[in-house]
Amino acid sequence: MKFAVAVFPGSNCDVDAYRALHDVLGQKVEYLWHRETDLSGFDGVILPGGFSYGDYLRPGAIARFSPLMTSVMRFARDGGIVIGVCNGFQLLTEAGLLPGAFLRNRDLMFVCDTVSVRVENTDTVFTHRCQAGQVLRLPIAHGDGNYTVDPATLAGMEQRGQVILRYCSPDGTVDEAHNPNGSVANIAGIINEQGNVAGMMPHPERAVENLLGGTDGLFILQSMVHELERRQHETCRC
Amino acid sequence: MKLAGAERAERVCLTGAEYARILELIGREPVDLELDLFGVMWSEHCSYKTSRPLLRLFPTTGPAVLQGPGENAGIVDIGDGLAVVMKVESHNHPSAVEPYQGAATGSGGIIRDIFTMGARPVAMLDSLRFGDLREVRQRSLFRGVVKGIGDYDNCMGIPTVAGEVAFDDSYAGNCLVNAMCVGIIRHGDIKRGVAAGAGNPVILVGATTGRDGMGGASFASVDLTAASQERKSAVQVGDPFLEKLLLEACLELFETDAVVGIQDLGAAGLTSASCETAARGGVGIDLDVALVPRREEGMVPAEVMISESQERMLVIARQGHEGEVRRIFDKWGLNAAVIGRVTDDGMLTIRNEGTIVGQVPAKALAEQAPPRYPEAVRPAWQDDLVSLDVTRLSQQDDWTETLMALLGTPTIASKEWVYHQYDSVVRTNTVIGPGSDAAVLRVDGTGHGIALTIDGPGRMCLLDPAMGAAMAVAEAARNLVCSGAKPLALTDCLNFGNPEKPEVFWQFSQAVKGMSDACQKLGIPVISGNVSFYNETSASAIVPTPVVGMVGVVEDLVHICRQGFCEPDSIVVLLGENTDELGGSEYVRLATGRTAGRVPLLDLERERKVQELCLTGICRGLIRSAHDVSDGGLAVTLAECCVSGQMGAHLSLPVGIRPDALLFGEAPSRIIVTVGAGDLAALMDTAVEMGVPLTVLGTTGGTLLDINVSDKSLVHVPIVDLAAVWHGSLSQVMNV
């Protein structure tokens, strides 16, 4: 089982993702340069945070056209597991793999903080290790994290349980006071209709060690790892 | 009578005497291009001609020092075959004119100084100064500078882990923006800015060259006037994305054996990079400006030579490895143009399409600016400043309101409005981020950490530059110790007014002496630094502001401390001793509107012992939290411990000192720590052994901060109220 961490010019959380999966979770991980196209042999793809192509035009708007993303889109269509964190989430919306788009943060300032998010759906590849309604403490660091989507699409997403994480108070109350960037419906993380592609602004890969302030990110990363192990197990049995 | 050539000299901001020296050095009249090069290289900013003689006072060696001042950055050994590379640099003048780009390119420049040494940058710190935030212009400067730093550092993927900000009217016309970068490197991988090997190619890599930042170095070497503020073209424009690519490309290049030497293009651009690398190597460089990739049409050779376009580096490569260099920079989408060769004649030879257009000895440009020895005179106003009789300030029964007012002043209030705009955790090594006495980072692949801080008590320096500068060193070391680190080395940024004024030069010379003294007594060498003069407008000079960035080593990441009270029923202990000194404090400023009074005495031997006790207590696992007493004095320090830990304390202070001095005096060499009840005896025994006074103040717990003296309540306030003021004040004033 092997993960790919995409590296675009300007990616900078590629190292964080690699270390979380490799050093902490003991997984096989490889960096994939944006000009690569071969995803054979990989079971999961991480689109890391950072400033791909300097966020020129819009975050993710240029990375979306890189050779690697063409392969990632095919990989996702074929049911492969893809998670985009921060800039990776922005990129997934630009690529049309996830609905919605991003605006500048509500108060127009970059925000780096540790926030609470409530798990809204535990029946997903990315959250099945969480309890329903569990509150996770996860770091955020972004300037364009204000998620927006048209009301009709949002209604459909809500109905299908595509919203997986919402910003909330430490005790789990979802309100405007605990919305760090102005995202519609306090949305912090979503999945696609098929459930194999996730995007989230909080950084689970930065919350994997007590020394660095907490391990709540493991709930998400371990959910993915276990799901891939399950799939692999099933394939073997067939 | 004007000296011969005085007018030509004036055009490039040099004196007639300096012009005469140029004639001696090159044996003829310089052509315009050559004079331009001397103008920028002999500017104060590049040549340190005024400060260099005094800076020799600094102790710059020690068993751990691998590279002292004189290179792009200093390097100090941290064990395990690893070393820290660090430097702090000012970008004050550009930031005063164009805060966003000025601050952004300040970050860009100092980051290049670190990776040009071969190191991966792992942390940024900043020291900032502005005027009164009630003025709209100051808010706009502050907002622009913070955004400029954030946008650059965040995009680079380097965590901004610590910093400080203070406010004083003297900075209104001349804000200070000092940026510090820290990198980590294996001993064997260190690169230097040295050219060698005649025939080796000189390769300019990174961004293209344009007219931005023309003559920035000489711009930074004059007072800011209305005319100089019009010189917007003297401010560079930064592109952090390009720099990120440049960083990764350079680090990839260093894994090959293609590099002989490398230097970034900072102040004075291609001129300084070429003549400095040549001078260090005792060789010459012969380059052709026509080969420099440009972004603008019609640039003359002088413009190409002194442009300060950002995100460029000069690589001196091994002959035959040109293709390898080009291949790596191609991968990252960057230019790599061979623009010349190393020669053995010691000359910087500049050609344009093959024709020589200027030729001067590299050493003359880089190293032979005549030193200046300005007059130093103790200012007449100094007596008036220190003469304030603090015993005549009015006394009160309840000091809660005063404490709240101090907690809400921008200099003391929490700086989260600033640091929430910086990514402080990228690269996942930040163990303690902004908001404590020092940042602590894990060092990959070891059980160790490094601690980082940056400090500069400007108020104290105004009243006594020598003592104030010594306090900067002492406080930086104390901050590191409070986090559990042993101080190792420092980098300094000395921000002063116009040194041609005897009063300013007196301040400068006093400060250098005070700092040297503290460095010697505390055993902390200076490994790199920067001097920024001419920080003044027609209205006034800034208060003298030496800023100290310091690194320390954390032996075991299990034994580190934060400032907040972390467990109820812990014993609150003061290491060191309270005094009745109140001079220079924030409290005096609040009460009188002035920075005045006699600076508290700094006894460096006492300081050393207090720090030793604190570090020993932390390393033995006795001390659970530690916070040094600084701005706002004991009461503010205790309030910060409560607010940071979201925990109250009930405290009883010793009698015998006037309440205002006791609560708000800023005497140095004091640390508030907490210990478990069972560990108190061990800490007291150690204190006795080391000869450090120690006082038990009370216990942690509850939701109130209660400070009493012999059953009389001085402060009685809910932690939530303290927290609201401390956390909220800065964002409140910025969101007007």
CATH class of chain A: Alpha Beta
Arrangement of strands in the largest sheet of chain A: 2-1-3-4-11-10-9-6-7
Helix residue percentage of chain B: 25-40%
Architecture of chain A in CATH?
A: 3-Layer(aba) Sandwich
Mean of all residue-level pLDDT scores of chain B: 94
User: Structural class, from helix and strand content of chain A?
Assistant: alpha/beta
Q: What is the count of β-strands of chain A?
A: 11
**Care to count the β-strands of chain B?**
26
Strand portion of chain B, in percent?
15-25%
Low-confidence stretches of chain A: none
CATH homologous superfamily label of the domain at 561-736 in chain B: PurM-like C-terminal domain
Q: State the largest interface.
A: A-B, 29 and 30 residues
Uncertain stretches of 5 or more adjacent residues of chain B: none
Report the sheet with the most strands of chain A, covering strand number, pairing sense and barrel closure. Answer: 9 strands, mixed
Please tally the helical runs of chain B, counting DSSP H or I stretches of 4 or more residues: 27
Q: How many domains of chain A, as an integer?
A: 1
CATH homologous superfamily annotation of chain A: Class I glutamine amidotransferase (GATase) domain
CATH arch. level architecture of the domain at 561-736 in chain B: Alpha-Beta Complex
Question: What is the mean pLDDT of chain A?
Answer: 96
Gross morphology of chain A: globular
As a percent range, the share of strand residues of chain A is: 15-25%
